[in-house]
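User: Let's play a game. I give you a shape written as tokens, and you guess the letters that built it. Ready? Here's round one.
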């Protein structure tokens, strides 16, 4: 059975893009693969943050992952900082990565903007991500398009390490969702729906109530030719709604196009389909928040399982690179 690993930062409110672009796929994967899902709180330390908020968001993210359908009996959900082997391996990998290759990471270039006070951790972020993946010898890594370059780095580090010290790591493969899996901002459909969006009206949160979802979708920016046609390049707003409707209802885009001749009914029914898709998630979430201790317990058992795999990898890596272990002789 293939091993799949992915990670999500506990920052920002969980939105529809996270669900359709990531978590829904993770839920499917847990039945076909040995799945590990990591809430990467250490990655969230690379930019300014509020400690109390980080802890709350980490627990909240875990609650949402379970509410979305991840089943702690079938996959491991855990918090990165509870498995200290990640940072142990990250150091070793840092000693096998070059300044040059990290300097080419576009995310660092965008976020760092050449600013001298930017944290060193933001620069080495992709190496910690490589450690998250390689420590489990993951075969598959579902990631958004923006993480492709980081995954390529993880592959390069794995191959370099294997050729220098002998076969140690599985070289992971990225699993990038198809283009249609990108949910666009309702107010600016040329940009992806994102926690850093300038207008809250453009994003649908998993915590939005039905009236709010209805309002946001009805006010979604479209064009004014009134043609219900799927054409992401020329009609990004309507195409985004068609994709949303299709993802939420299971109907094909062609089928939906045939059923609608104007924007009003299309928007109402899209809103209804999204509301119905999210309702059971919200119901489970509301149940789970009443028992946060049980969510913490799931995280602890996830971390225990993850640690057993991570510890074995560290033993193998340590011997390969000349770090002495108690059973050396
Ligand atoms: P982020 O919150 O941006 O770190 O994203 C967490 C996960 O959700 C990543 O796997 C992203 O690829 C996915 N994701 C975020 N925004 C979108 C979006 N608008 N459409 C599809 N997937 C998304
Ligand atoms: N960098 C990823 C993001 O921002 C999160 C992440 C950290 C990750 N470690 C990972 C994703 C390991 C996949 C595998 O989305």
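Assistant: Ready! My guess for every position:
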């Amino acid at each position: 059975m293939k091993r799949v690993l992915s990670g999500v930062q506990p920052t920002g409110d969980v939105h529809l893009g996270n669900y359709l672009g990531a978590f829904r796929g993770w839920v499917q994967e847990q039945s076909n693969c040995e799945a590990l899902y990591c809430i990467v709180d250490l990655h969230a330390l690379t930019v300014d943050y509020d400690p109390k908020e980080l802890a709350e968001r980490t627990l909240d993210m875990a609650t949402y992952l379970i509410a979305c359908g991840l089943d702690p009996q079938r996959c491991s959900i855990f918090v990165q900082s509870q498995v200290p082997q990640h940072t142990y391996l990250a150091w070793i990998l840092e000693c096998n990565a070059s300044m040059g290759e990290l300097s080419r990471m576009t995310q660092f270039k965008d976020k760092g903007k050449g600013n001298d006070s930017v944290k060193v951790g933001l620069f080495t972020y992709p190496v910690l991500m490589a450690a998250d993946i390689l420590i489990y010898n993951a075969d598959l890594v579902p990631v958004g398009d923006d993480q492709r370059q980081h995954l390529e780095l993880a592959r390069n580090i794995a191959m370099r390490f294997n050729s220098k010290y002998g076969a140690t790591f599985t070289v992971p493969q990225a699993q990038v969702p198809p283009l249609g899996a990108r949910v666009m901002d309702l107010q600016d459909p040329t940009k992806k729906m994102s926690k850093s969006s300038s207008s809250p009206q453009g994003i649908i949160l998993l915590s939005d109530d039905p009236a709010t979802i209805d309002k946001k979708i009805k006010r979604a920016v479209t064009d004014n030719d009134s043609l219900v046609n799927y054409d992401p390049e020329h009609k990004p707003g309507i195409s985004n709604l068609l994709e949303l409707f299709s993802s939420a209802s299971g109907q094909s885009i062609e089928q939906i196009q045939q059923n609608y001749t104007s924007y009003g009914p299309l928007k109402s029914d899209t809103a209804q389909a999204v509301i119905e898709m999210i309702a059971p998630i919200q119901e489970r979430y509301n149940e789970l928040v009443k028992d946060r201790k049980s969510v913490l317990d799931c995280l602890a058992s996830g971390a225990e399982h993850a640690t057993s795999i991570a510890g074995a990898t560290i033993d193998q890596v340590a011997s390969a690179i000349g770090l002495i272990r108690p059973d050396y002789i």
